[in-house]
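Feature request disguised as a bug report, sorry. It would help if multi-protein outputs had a clear separator. Right now it looks like this:
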Amino acid sequence: MENSSTSASASLEATHVESSGDCTRLLESLRNLGFGESELGRSNHGSTSPSPFQWWRYINDNNNNNNTSLSIALAAKEARSSSSIHPIPPVQPSPINATETSTASTSLVNHYNLAHGRTNMLLGAALVNNHHQIPSHMGQDYYSTNYQEGQEERIPSTMQGQSNLVWLAKTEKGSKYLQALLLENDPEITRMVLKRVFEHMVDLMSDQHGQYLFQTLLGICDIAQLDLIVRKVTSQSPLLVRAATTKYGSISIQKLIRRLKKMDLVECVTSVLYANFFQLMTDRIGRMAIKECAEYLDSRQNEVLYEAVIWNVIELATDPVGCISLNDCIECMIGSQRERLLARISDESVRLSRHPSGNFVVQNVLKLEVPSINEKICKRLRGNYARLSQVKSGSHLVEKCLRCSWGMDSFVQEMKSEKGALQKLARDKFGNYVVQRALELSKEHFTSHHEYLLTALGPCLSSLQQSTYGKHVFCKITQDGAAKLL
């Protein structure tokens, strides 16, 4: 009997060596993983573990286009690590099929369609045999119907402290397959997958492939399960905040916010964002989570975040990233909180106008065209127009001020009060653009101011014509038909 078994194994080995050059590489991979000769199919009599050739044959029969020596070797090692699990029956002279497998394996094949390939087979094993304890606050009866009788939980020695399912979810194929399982809308599968990844939820959110499993779970889980997910990730606020500053973690959090759009549960998320508000608002990736709240949640849900915006407005406005985040919030805010925010910005408009980032915020407020706010800003900036016009960012701000009557009035009054200020601006690298804009707008809407500008510039037109930057003002005047002032 022993000679017969040895002969069959040797025959199988010879067949595969002839049919595939990968067999030699398979043997090498198995040896590197610690397999002895007795486990390599040469003396398999009485062995309780499938030999590598059994794995090779089984997988070749089911998935001829997707096998490698290393992947099959790893599969064999996984089988050896759990002595009570035998996905592949002992080698027989006849071809292996599902009816020859053990009862547990047959059930697994039928339930998870394992004939599609090695990845599916390992995934099915992971679902039944990967084993974290039920989180204490979820209750034992929550998952009491997950498993058939006899499917006890065991922790494979090769995966101590880590979930097979989490590992698979972080691979491209494993993640796609898990998503496909979840999209079958089988409550049992959903509960099973959720349990396996529950303790690693934030980790999955930040993973390139795991994020897709997390997002799929959000879409198909029920309210009770969604509540568990939200409370789990928000209970780990340091990890969640760190995830928010990563590419994939930020996307996952944005998806979570959209899923909770019409639910009070979203307050758990906004509370974490509020506690780490300034850090996130000044991070190029982290700010996207708060922007998502501003765009998708209503004023009541965003109330705590908007209060943080008002409280930190100056610090945000003077930060290169924070000013962008602040402008996003300004555009989305409504009601009394928006009025308070705009009032604070207008009160600090002089200070902010002198800062490269703060200047950008003041410009954005002026674009909103709120009459009372624009009037307040334009009047407060009086006495600063000449200096601002000679700075690149400041010149853009002055041009926006000139669009409203308060801005034009304040600008002209300042030019009148400072002798030679207008002529100096006309020759300046940035100031000449302000003068051109003033000529253009005053001609259309403020005739008296236009006449003053032409009169003030008339005596120096010839020198402007010879100036590097002043010639642009000269051309503007002549094109507008005011050459008679020469």
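(second protein starts here, but nothing in the output says so)
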Amino acid sequence: MDDHLAIVYMTPEVQTTCLTYGLCTEKEETLVLLAGYFGYENFQTIAHVTRSIVTTRKDKSKDRVEVDPEQMSLAMTEADSAGLNLVGWAHSHPHITVNPSHVDLRTQFNMQTLDPRFFGIIVSCFNNDAGTQRFQVTCFQTIETEHGQIERVVPLLIRPANPGLLVTDGLTQVQAIPRQLFKEEAEGFDNRQCGPTTGLAAHLCAGIHTHTLSNLVDKMTGPMLTHLKIRYDTNMKQIEMLDKRRGTRSSI
């Protein structure tokens, strides 16, 4: 058996979570931990990603994102409770190319010391190409050479975990995004309140916090609810159409 990771299979639900989270902010990188399992195919090591775990970001900036070790431990516990393991991580590159930075390569290399099969995914977004927005996604590992750390590209394919079966937790994974963003904003506001903020400064912090929460509701939670309603109506129409087909076949 070849222990080098040959390919990564990701479910459409996890892909949707990674892309949606990346589009939530163009001023900060986002991070998602990936749960699933490793296996073998044609005597090669493969990874199956079936669940995404949105965690609190330790460092939030336009060119860097880090996850707290405590959050990593909680994510491992959550994955284990579902009979899965942490197999990778994904983060966004807003207004940046999809290529991993030296920080990304170092972070990925550190992850591989825990499991050499561990991989990273980068989602490049908010890049205009001739006026057209486009996504770029890469899956990679880090190789240590005499010239330093370099990227090893790993093929990434999107396919359902169980073709033909209805996935019930797909929306649950996406719903974790606004919940996490609200949590981070609340924690940031509480931390600012702990400082020496009085009078106008306290009112300013409260106003900024209210404005941020309003933006989250207006630009994310609201559109998400609208999308869910459209999806619900579409599903109900499909169910009605399938019921009619079944009735037609039964009468033959």
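Even a blank line would do. Unrelated, but nice: The CA atoms of residues 215 and 221 lie 9 Å apart.
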